[in-house]
Fold:
Amino acid sequence: MDTWTLIEQPCRFNRRRGTDALFTLGNGYLGCRGFFEEEQEDVEALGGIYVAGVFGRGALKAWKGMHRELVNTPNFFWVSLRVNGEALLCRPKRMAGYRRVLDMRRGVLDRRFTWTGSDGARVRVRFERFLSVDDLHLAGQRIEIEALDRDVEIELLVGIDARVTQLNRVTTSPRPIQPGRRHLRTLRAGPDEIETVVDTLPKGVRLAEAQRAVLETPAGPLRGADAATTDLAARRFCFRLAAAKTARLTRLAAFYTSRDGADPMARARRTLRRAGDYEGLRAAHERRWAETWRACDIELEGPDDDQRALRFNLFQLLQACPEHDSRVSLGARGLSGEMHEGSVFWDNEIFKLPFFTFTRPAATASMLRFRHRTLPEARRHARDLWFDGAMYAWKSGDDGVEETEMGVGAYYAIHIVADIAYALRQYWEATADDEFLFRYGVEILIETARFWKSRSHYDPLRRTWNILAVRGPNEYDVIVNNNLFTNMMAGENLRYAEEAVALMRRRSPAAWKRLAARLGFRETEPAAWRALAEGLVLCYDRGRDLFVEDDMYLHRVPFDMKRGKPDARRVIDGTLPYEAMALYQITKQSDVVTLMNLLPWKFTPRQMRRAYAFYEPRTAHDSSLSYSPHAVMAARLGMRAEAYRYFRDCAYLDLADIQLNTISGLHFANLGGAWQAAVMGFAGLWQGDGRLHLGPHLPAAWKAMRFRLCYRGGTLRVELRGGKTRVLLESPGPAPLRLCVAGRDVRLSKAGQEVTTPA
Amino acid sequence: MDTWTLIEQPCRFNRRRGTDALFTLGNGYLGCRGFFEEEQEDVEALGGIYVAGVFGRGALKAWKGMHRELVNTPNFFWVSLRVNGEALLCRPKRMAGYRRVLDMRRGVLDRRFTWTGSDGARVRVRFERFLSVDDLHLAGQRIEIEALDRDVEIELLVGIDARVTQLNRVTTSPRPIQPGRRHLRTLRAGPDEIETVVDTLPKGVRLAEAQRAVLETPAGPLRGADAATTDLAARRFCFRLAAAKTARLTRLAAFYTSRDGADPMARARRTLRRAGDYEGLRAAHERRWAETWRACDIELEGPDDDQRALRFNLFQLLQACPEHDSRVSLGARGLSGEMHEGSVFWDNEIFKLPFFTFTRPAATASMLRFRHRTLPEARRHARDLWFDGAMYAWKSGDDGVEETEMGVGAYYAIHIVADIAYALRQYWEATADDEFLFRYGVEILIETARFWKSRSHYDPLRRTWNILAVRGPNEYDVIVNNNLFTNMMAGENLRYAEEAVALMRRRSPAAWKRLAARLGFRETEPAAWRALAEGLVLCYDRGRDLFVEDDMYLHRVPFDMKRGKPDARRVIDGTLPYEAMALYQITKQSDVVTLMNLLPWKFTPRQMRRAYAFYEPRTAHDSSLSYSPHAVMAARLGMRAEAYRYFRDCAYLDLADIQLNTISGLHFANLGGAWQAAVMGFAGLWQGDGRLHLGPHLPAAWKAMRFRLCYRGGTLRVELRGGKTRVLLESPGPAPLRLCVAGRDVRLSKAGQEVTTPA
Structure:
C-alpha cells in the first residue's frame, strides 16, 4: 500500500464538494481546493483558489474591523468540455473508473474517469495539476482525452474564470454564512491571450493571471480560437478525435498580485515566458518536495493508514504556510476553505508553529514577524480598551485589526497575547536566534507584558492579582475569572519579557538603548512584571492536588455528557444553547491539559495525572483543538492505548470528517496537532529548561518512528523503536546541543555523534 | 398654566418624528403615534399605528422563536392635501403658527398651523383626532381648512393607507434594525367605500378597517370621488373654498381584527353604522377619561411642570394598557414605537404593574393572565433547557416564546421568573383576590418554584445553594453567579409558592385536589422549596454591612465613571464595548437598590443607606429602569433633594429625551416608575406584611400631593401635605383595611373614616 497517496474511489456524487478540501494543493502563495476542473452545471463558476493575504470585506459585523474575508480568486484551471455536442458532466450514469489521487510525495493531483455520452461514445479523461513550490507564481495542468470506441467531436474550452463567488453558501454547513458574495471586478479578460486582471473589492488588490495552453492532437498541435466572455478569458479548441487516439492539453499559468509589486501583469507574462516546459517545471517542483520531505517527514513502522494520515496532515500544513511573506500568517483553515474567513487565531502559535519551529524555523520566524508587523494595531486595540501595551486581536485578517463579530467575546479571549509570547520564546529556545529576538521579539515581549500589567487587577480583599473577565481555551467558559491557562501563560509572558530585556541589554546594548528609548521603557518595569508574575492567582485545589480551570469550575453544575452529546455534533448545535455552557462543568476543548503540555516543568507527574483524570471525562471535544493535546499528555503519562486513540481522532479528523465541517476547509491547528501528538507525545519532545527533552512513548501499534529536528542550527535524526530512543546529530550547530534523552543528559557537538537510550 | 396639555410649539422641522412618540394616542386596543396626517414627501406612507397583539415576523435572529415584531398597521388617519395644485407639506418657509397639543384630560390630539403656498395663498388648517376609550374599535378625526386671504382650490384625499412599512429604519437611532420591512398583504382597498382588509404576514392576522368621511363646505356637504389605488382606499374631494370660509372634514373609523372574531369587516361596518356622530362619540370618550382620571390621577400642589410631567407619564401608561385582552400584555414601548419589537420583559411586572395594581387592578389581573396563558410555552422552554417547571421568556411577543436574539443572554436573565411571581403576590396582597390566585396564580407559583428548584445547585464545597450563570437587573453584569437580586427574589418565589399551596389547600380543597393532580404535585415539594429558599446564598459583606450585587462585584476593577460616561450616551455606545463591562464595578441600572425597594422588610435602614451610598456612584443609569428606583429609595431614606432630582430625571425622561431614543417609543417601565417615585417614594407606599404602609417624604418643592388607591376592594384617598399624611376611606372593602401610616397602625372599615398623622 502506498502511504504517499490519498485516493478517492469511487466518486462521491452526492457530496462531492465535501472532499474537495482534502485534495487541496498549495504552495503557501496559493491554495487550490481539489475541485473538478470541468464546469459542472450545479456549481458553475465556483472554483476555490485563495491567495495568501488577499482579503475582501465580509458580511459579518466585526467588533472593530471591516470583517475581512479571504477572497475566492479567478479559477485558472477552468475547463469546459463537450463530447459530440454534449456537456461532459459528473453524473453517476455517465461515469466509470473514477479515481482522484493526491500524490503527497510529489504535490500533484490526478483525476481520471471514463465518461459515456448519451449516444454511447466513451472517452477516457485524465486531469493532472500542481502548484509549483519551486516558483510560487506558476502552476501546471495537463488534460488527456482518449476516444475509446469510436471517433468523437470534442469541444474544449480552457481559460481563467473570474465569475467565481465566495463558496461559503455552498461549503459552510450546517450554517450558511454568506450568499455567494462576489469580490472581483474584472478589468480585462481576453481576447488575444488567456489573461485576466481583476481587482478585489473594496480594498483593491489587483490580481493578474496569464496562461499558455497548448493542445496536441494526433493530427498535430492546435491553436484555439478566442472564446472570451465577460469575466472569462478563454480559448476554444474544436477537433475530431479518432478512436483509440489521445489528445493532450498542457497549460502553464502564472499569477501575481499588486502585493508582489507594480504591474503584476507584466510580471506574470515575464514569468510565463521564462517558465520552460511542463515536464521541467514539474520536475523542479518535485525536487523541492523531496527536499521538504527529507526535513519534515515522520516515518513509521506501523499501520500504513497511520503513516498516510500523518503524512496527509504534514503535507497540508507545509503546503499552506506563507513562509515567503511575513505580511500574512496561516489561517485556521489555511488556504483550503473559507470558514473563519481566512483569519488567524491563537492556535497558529500554539498548534501549528511548533512543527515549523522544529522543521522549518524560517517559517516560524516569518509568522512571528507577522505579529511584529501588526503591533501598531495591537497597541491601538489596547489603548481603545483602556489598556497599555499591545493587545493582539483574537481574529486577524491581514492587518491585525480585531475581526471577531460583535458580542462573541474577543475582549475575553486574551490568552492569545501570551500565546504569541510563548511561541516566540519557544522559537528562540529552539533556534538560539538572538538577532530575531532583539530585532522583533523583545518589542513584542515588552508590549505584551505591559498589556498584562494593565489588564491585571490587585484585589485588596483577597490580596491576589486577578485577571478577570476572560475566556480560556475552553470556549464553553463564556466568561470566567482567573482562568488558569491565561494567568499562568501571562506569568510566563511577563518572565520572558523580563529575561529578554536583561539578555538584550547585555548582548546588544546599543540596540537596546534605541529600543528602550523608542518604547519609553522605564527601569522599574521588569521588577513590576516579576512581581505580577509571582502574584497572579493560580486556581488550585490543595485537597486534590488539582489545578483548576478557573475560580468557579469546581462550583459549577456537573454536566451529563451522555445527554449533552449523544452524537458527533457539538453540544451547542445539538442540545443546549451556547449560553447554557456557563452553568456547567464542561470543557469544550482541552484547557488545563493543553497548559500542562506547554509548561510541563511547572507540574508534577501526579498533578498531570490528576488533571487528565479530572478533565478528560468533562471534555466534549467540540473543537479540533482537543484531540492532540489529549494524545500528547496521555502519551507522556504512559497511557499509550488512550494516547493512540486520541492520535487517531486527531490524524483522521479531516480524512474522516469527524467535526462534520471539513467541507469548509481543513482544520489547520489539528494538522499541527498530529505532528505534536507524534513528536511531542510519542517521542516526548519538549524544551524550556535549556535542554531538548525526548523520550519513548510509542503506541503498541507502532514498531518504530523516525524524524528529523532542527535544533539550534543543527539537525538531529531521531529514531524510536520500542523502548529505545536513538538520536543522531546529522549536522552540528554553532554550539554543542544539550539534550535530555529518556531522562539522560547528553551533549552532542559533532556530526555523526549519536546516543541511544537505554544504551 | 394648563397642566393637562402637552404643547409643541414651534414645529421641530428637522427632527419632527423625534417627538411623534410623545403625542401618541391610544386605547389599549390601538396605539397611534402623533404623526402628521397629511402625507409628507420624505416620509410617505409611514404612519405608526399598532394593534395590541398583532405581530409579524421580524428580521432579528431569535434564540428560539421566529422573532415576532409589532406590525405597523394601515394608517386610517391618512390625508393628502393640495392647495391651488400645490402639495401642502410641512416646511419651515411655508408654516406659521404651528401648534401640536395633546390634551391629556380628554385624550385628544390637536394640531394647527397656517400654511402659505408658493403663490402666496394662505390657509389655516386644524387637525383633531382621538381613539375612543369608550368603544375601542372606533376613532374620530376632524380636519378644518380655512382660506385666509383669497379663494383657493382645495384637493383633499382621505383614506386608509395600507402601504405602510415598519418604522424601525426611520425611528431607531442610532442603530437601524430593519429596513422598512412590510408585513401587510392587501386583500381589498376601495373603491366603493373607504374600506381596507389586510392580512399580516406570515401569521395572517386579518385587519379590517372601514371609515365614513363627510366633508362640509360652505356650499353644503360634498361627496368625494373614488381615488383608490393599490393598498390605498381613499376618496377625493375637490372644491373651491372662498376667502374667510372654512371647510370641515369629519370621519369616523372602525377597525377589527380576526383576533376579535370571525368576519372583522362585518363587525367594523356594523360598529361604524351604529357609531352615531362625531361629537357624541367624542363626548362618551371624554366621559370615560374623566372616570379614569378620577381613579388614577396624582394631584400636586407644586410646580406645574412636575404636575404635567407626572400626568403625561400616567396618561401614556393608561392609554396603552390592553386591559380588554389577556392574550397580550404591555410591551416595553407600549404601542408608541417599534423598539424591542413590541415585546414584554420583566419590567412590565416590576415597573408598570404596581400602578395598575393600586389603581386599576383588573388591568393587572389581565396582564397576569397573559403569563398564565403562556405557561405551556414557559414549561417547554424550561424542558428544552433541562430544567423543570416554567421558565418564562425574557422577551415575549404574543405567544410567550423566547424572542431574544441569539447570544444576548436570555438564558441568564431568569430573574423575570421570580418577578412575575412577585407581581402576582403583590396583586393578591393588594386585592385579596383569592379566586384569581387559586384559578391562575397557584399554578404559576408552583411551576416557577419548580423551575428555581431545578435551576439551583448545591455546592458541596461551599455548602450553599447557588444560582449560577445569571444576569441580574444590572445588564452590564454579562454573566455572574449568585446575583443577590435573583437569589433573593427566587427565595421569595419559593415562599410564595409554599404559602399559596397551603392557603388553597385550606380555602379551596376541591379545586386544589384537581390542580395538584393535574400538576403532578408531590407532597414533599413545599418543604424542599422552603429549604432551598433558606439555603440560597445571599452575597453580603459583613464588615461593611453591605449587600453585594453578586459574588464577584467587590473583586472587580473600579470603574472611572467620568471617563466611561462623559456624555448622555450609554457607556457601551460611547467608550467601551459591552463585553468590557464584566471587568468593572459598574452597574448599568439599579440592581440592589431595586431589590431593596421591592422587599423593604428584608433590610435594615442602615443596610439600605449603605447600599445606596455604595451603588449610586457606580451606577451609569444607562437604562430607563434606573432613575425611579433611586428616587424611591432616596425618598424613603429621607434624602429628599436627591429623590426629587431622580424623580425629575424619571418624569422627564421621554419629555426631554434623556435616553436619546424616545423617537423609537416611550419608555413604559419609566412611565410606571414615575408613579412609583411619587407614590412608593414620596408617599412611602409598600406592602408585604399584611398592612399597607404610607409615609410622608415629599420633596421641598411640593406643598401637597393627593391620589387615590384601590386596596382590598376599597378606595382610599391619600393626601400628603408637608409632614402630614391623611388617609380617607372613600369606599370600604369587604373587610377592614389594615394600614400603617407614618409608623402608626390603623384600621379603616367605614366609608368616610379617615386618619391623619401626625394627628
